[in-house]
Automatic annotation (TrEMBL):
<dbReference type="Pfam" id="PF08323">
    <property type="entry name" value="Glyco_transf_5"/>
</dbReference>
<keyword id="KW-0750">Starch biosynthesis</keyword>
<keyword id="KW-0328">Glycosyltransferase</keyword>
<feature type="domain" description="Starch synthase catalytic">
    <location>
        <begin position="1"/>
        <end position="246"/>
    </location>
</feature>
<dbReference type="GO" id="GO:0019252">
    <property type="term" value="P:starch biosynthetic process"/>
</dbReference>
<protein>
    <submittedName>
        <fullName>Granule-bound starch synthase</fullName>
    </submittedName>
</protein>
<dbReference type="GO" id="GO:0016757">
    <property type="term" value="F:glycosyltransferase activity"/>
</dbReference>
<comment type="pathway">
    <text>Glycan biosynthesis; starch biosynthesis.</text>
</comment>
<dbReference type="InterPro" id="IPR013534">
    <property type="entry name" value="Starch_synth_cat_dom"/>
</dbReference>
<keyword id="KW-0808">Transferase</keyword>
């Protein structure tokens, strides 16, 4: 959804501004152009040692890094006909916490251990002088691990974390007893502690990953100035995190658009390409083609309105 769009478009725009940019995400599929770096790291997750591998490709100035582990790859459409977050809509995988713990622990390793030389301007590992952007609840543990595992050892001393909220409705709420899974010291319990009136997934006290991500990061941002206002406007719009966000403050930066991907002069999905000089000739023809394709009356004088959004309660 929106997060995928941002992760697709924002990093190349940052790279074009001269930054060295890496994205880290789970390897959910056998991406045909992402190659095995043969770099393995061992992580301690819930009392077990888990080994992850990094896959990598370099596209449009961005190092795309994928964390490889069976908990990600065994769930994808291609292999099991399954979905990313759960077996069906509204139901979560039981091991979602372990899956995203793995992502949050692997992510800070990547800039240190990967020796990447595909960029003509930068070479070698990224090192420790970096800014992490953690997106949504799935990566909310990253600032917690930086604070408790890395910084006490003198690693990532000057690194900062910005936490970006794409959709406040998904917060990563789990039973309070699950705090022990996270391998974090008790001093962070307060940042996760959350009480709500719902019986899902359990009644009463919970941990809330997003609450911790907001509190433990250096800066909180979201996808538009208007959404930033909305999140602090009340309990319903901030989905019970409005008080926390009021405490930390939040900046709204409007989501941009990938002008390369959405360029009508080169768009492979358009039968007739156009630019600002030919738009008035091309659009009526494209409208007729769309009307024909979806079985509407073909008439270039009827307005056609497109809406991209979330059909969800």
């Amino acid at each position: 959804g929106g997060l995928g769009d941002v992760l697709g478009g924002l990093p190349p725009a940052m790279a074009a501004n001269g930054h060295r940019v890496m994205t880290v995400s789970p390897r959910y599929d056998q991406y045909k152009d992402a190659w095995d770096t043969s770099v393995l790291v061992e992580l301690e997750v819930n009392g077990r040692t888990e080994s992850v591998r990094f896959f990598h490709c370099h596209k449009r100035g961005v190092d795309r890094v994928f964390v490889d582990h069976p908990v990600f790859l065994e769930r994808v459409w291609g292999k099991t006909g399954s979905k990313i977050y759960g077996p069906r809509a509204g139901e979560d995988y039981k091991d979602n916490q372990l899956r995203f713990i793995l992502l949050c622990q692997a992510a800070p390793e990547a800039p240190r251990v990967l020796n990447l030389n595909s960029n003509e301007y930068f070479s070698g590992p990224y090192g420790e002088d970096v800014v992490f952007i953690a997106n949504d609840w799935h990566s909310a543990l990253l600032p917690c691990y930086l604070k408790t595992i890395y910084k006490p050892k003198g690693i990532y001393k000057s690194a900062k974390v910005a936490f970006c909220i794409h959709n406040i409705a998904y917060q990563g709420r789990f039973p309070f007893s699950d705090f022990s899974l996270l391998d974090l010291p008790d001093q962070l319990k307060g940042s996760f502690d959350f009480l709500d009136g719902y019986n899902k997934p359990v009644k009463g006290r919970k941990i809330n990953w997003m609450k911790a991500g907001i509190l433990e990061s250096d800066k909180v941002v979201t996808v538009s100035p208007y959404y930033a206002q909305e999140l602090v406007s009340g309990e319903d719009k901030g989905v019970e995190l409005d008080n926390i966000i009021r405490t930390t403050g939040i900046s709204g930066i409007v989501n941009g658009m990938d002008v390369q991907e959405w360029n009508p002069a080169t768009d492979k999905y358009l039968d007739i390409k156009y630019d600002n000089t030919t738009v008035l000739d091309a659009k009526p023809l494209l409208k007729e083609a769309l009307q024909a394709e979806v079985g509407l009356p073909v008439d270039r004088n009827i307005p056609v309105i497109g809406f991209i959004g979330r059909l969800e309660e």
